[in-house]
Request: fold
Amino acid sequence: MRALSCLIALSLSGAAFAQEVPCGGDFQTFKAGLRDEAVAMGHDAEVARRFLSGARQDSSVLRRDRAQGIFQTPFIEFSRKLISQDRLDRGRQLSQRWDEVFDRIERDYGISRGVLLAFWAFETDYGAFQGDFNTLNALVTLAHDCRRPEIFRPQIFAAMELYERGDFDPATTTGAWAGEIGMVQMLPRDILENGMDGDGDGHVTLKTSAPDALLSGAKMLSELGWRHGEPWLQEVVLPADMDWSQTGLETTMSVAEWERLGVRAREGALDDGRLEASILLPQGRGGPSFIAYPNFRVYFEWNQSFTYVMTAAYFASRLEGASVYDPGNPDPGLSGEQMLALQRALDAKGYDVGGIDGILGAGTRSAVRDMQARLGLPADGWPTIELLNLL
Reply:
């Protein structure tokens, strides 16, 4: 489920590990190293040779990898681009069409159907656009590139194992530019670990079988920590005297504690008072407000873009019957260049903003909130021109 972002949300990270992964250099020598490693892992030498023989570099993959500007878009604009009445209508139609599959997911994994439908919609428009990049070429290109080889090199060997099972063709298997396959866009190792034969044909076919794709996605969410039968995100109304510094993912309180502080559900009631939750303001105190339950954090195990996660979680609630959020009247945000300038200023003051990339991610939001508090501004984590000028 990463086609739209293609920012891989795996927990493989760390500079020390990255330095141990071979990358770069002559491409044919690099491929020979892959073959040797595959044999050392127990793969047949001839199978490894056949599997890798036609692999080539794809420069268009690298261009896509370096172009992530969509995540500089604020939540309101981003969500309005992705959520349409047509997508809502088709999602509800597919919910009925695959009712038995969703019933099974809800029974076995405790994951509400809106969650899977939202991912299905955003990643491939319900299977209509699954990507036409050769998957092996994409994985080998990104493993050869020295930016994130520790993420992509293991996926090559996972794809080789799928090939040995008859579920991957190095010449014809296609998907997203970052190697994800199928209706809900899963990487080869995710397929090995979480693939489900939902239609009973003896194969895990994520490109053409909705039951396989949906059940595999549900199993993966469950393995990532989804809590059975619990909520994920809900719109709230906040009190006028809210302490804005308490907002953000860094602060959690029980739902009952938030209620005592005056937080109210915009529709219905908040969930179990014992659940730990955070208050999120994707565009500051002037914009929409949400309470994020523990399951919301699982989204970040799948995709690390705050804007994408907020939008996917919100769309899931819409598919479950929630109303359109109140957009409020947020303060104007920063342009891409202004965001870069802000991140440089925060970095110079010792804050870890998670990279100077012009994207308002969790690290930048946390740094903004702390700096706002230091400067006597409302500490809502939403960067403004006023804050930038003060810095």
Residues 336-390 form one domain. Strands lie at 133-134, 174-175, 233-237, 253-254, 264-265, 276-280, 290-292. The longest strand covers residues 233-237.
